[in-house]
Design brief:
Number of domains: 2
CATH superfamily of the largest domain: Glycogen Phosphorylase B
CATH architecture of the largest domain: 3-Layer(aba) Sandwich
Number of strands: 12
Order of helices and strands: EHHEHEHEHEEHHEHEHEHEHEEHH
CATH class of the largest domain: Alpha Beta
Strand order of the largest sheet: 3-2-1-4-5-6
Mean pLDDT: 93
Number of helices: 13
Low-confidence stretches: none
Structural class: alpha/beta
Helix content: 25-40%
Amino acid sequence: MNILIIGPSWVGDMVMAQTLFQCLQQRHPGCQIDVLAPDWSRPILERMPEVRAALSFPLGHGVLDIAARRRIGKSLRGRYDQAILLPNSLKSALVPFFAGIPRRTGWKGELRYGLLNDLRTLDKQRYPLMIERFMALAFEPGVALAQPYPRPSLQIDPASRAAALDKFALSLDRPLLALCPGAEFGEAKRWPAEHYAKVAELKIREGWQVWLFGSKSDQAGCADIRSRLIPGLREECVNLAGLTSMAEAIDLLSAATAVVSNDSGLMHVAAALNRPLVAVYGSTSPQFTPPLADQVEIVRLGLDCSPCFDRTCRFGHYNCLRELKPRPVIEALERLLGTPVEVQ
């Protein structure tokens, strides 16, 4: 059975989509899964053994371009038995429709009647987690999802990781704390730089090294964290934000002894790499998209005004993050690292 997945547009969602791929392999042993998604997702998909191929989708997020979608759809004709759509948009339904894929499965979204012929109605109470909403599409409507749920697990090539270490002149001669202080969602997901710097300072004084991860848009924030360290400590903190490719970031994160991250795509990557992880939550909630791994500590204040899921604080104070001091995060790290952790 050949299945085309229309992939999501966010890093964390793509990582969590692996639970669907695992369910499909469970239901249809030996099925071939291809994922149509933006190019940035290729390094993630290439590290998922369930995926045969990552198919490049050239249109940017939010671009309609019906003619281009028709061309892509026609190029896929006759290749798939089923398409499963993870986005709920009208746009995402066009390529499978133009491809003439016999079964086109997805949740009822914006004006998709006729484009999907296996249209499901989402019961949010029954499926509160995003992974449940993904996994349910692998089965017939109404089928109960079996516990325990599968978890994302990205597979690392040691040679690829060694190449990344060599490229950036990095060494694993000491324990490594990876910090992921960015979040594309906005300021309401970003724990303050001064708090991250305190955690970095403590671990460096204990003999650790610290690497900062993120995109180009996170470079300034990571530089701010590093600048708050005094000379002598600052040299033990490496700012990799905006310098690594996605593939390199994944491989280097896999070497971490522990990770501290905001609720972000890299948080889900770290969880899928099974790294001991402290996840810091502010305006969002772990009740919908928690990191899926065994060695996880979630730290949040749980103020009356949170979770609000706003990109910017409606009150202007961001207290859900600013008032979350370093001590709870450090204590969470200590709980996770009660026993030595081996680099995978």
